[in-house]
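Same chain as my last thread, 311 residues:
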Amino acid sequence: MDDFRLLMISAMYENGGNLTHRTLDGHPDLYVYPFESQLGTRFVVDRLTSLFPNKYRWPEFPLGGNASDDYDSIIDEECKVRVRTPRVSKFKDFAMDLSDEERKKLFCAYIDRMGRSRGGNVEAFFRATFDAWHDCATSGRERVYVGYSPCIVVDTPRIAADVAGAHVLHVVRNPWSAYADTKRRPVPLPIDEYMLAWSVNQTCALAYTKAYPERVHVVRAEDVMADPRSALAETCRALEIEADEAMDAPTWNGRRLDEIRPWGTIRTPSPDENVETAKELARSEVERIAQLAEPHLDRFGYRDLLRELTR
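reply #2:
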């Protein structure tokens, strides 16, 4: 359908993707996916497969498949666990009236009308989700769908080719705060592995802002924390919508969130808390991250923070 418009949020782990996603949640012109929109499938195989999980990638589908199999192959772990086995979901305390069986039927109906394609399958997935989500708080003004898949900026050329109305919003956060939050996970990535993925994300984001200047946007998590409406105003203009007061605080389905968890490890999205998080790292960790992030420190304005952490 020619009127399908999509904004895909991208961010390296603990870089503010969930924060930005929840900040846009209440905007009256946006259909915002309830959790990470993990669009990837097991059929994603390329040079980046070993670096980023398939669930976070732009999907691939076999030529000989069908709509039913296509739907089942989309990983979408967070949403499927929440609606199929809510007792084991980290989002069990958030009410949601959505049947995965109904959503699949709607998806297949869309594909019957549009035909199978990579971009068409993504469109059908988003449309079917909001058709089947019966207690979704809507304004009646929604005209852009919003998804969030960590690291999906690396697939920007596919997104741009598959969906004419697609934009990518990449979020970057200083690597010290990001890695300190990563260390709170049960099995965190080692610094060198984390920083390799962090650097690939930022390199791709900067390259694609040049290759697709009207469709790829980069914002710092620090700026979203400090003034979300101002930080995201340029992206809103690109989507031909206005920045809205609903962006002043993170929400889920219209419900204000006191902290971003369980959507991510960031608790209080404030500039002061962000700096204090970075200070949790040992001096050796700060210096190693600085070495590995060196090409990006000045570009994103993180040199002053490094001086503060090492003085």
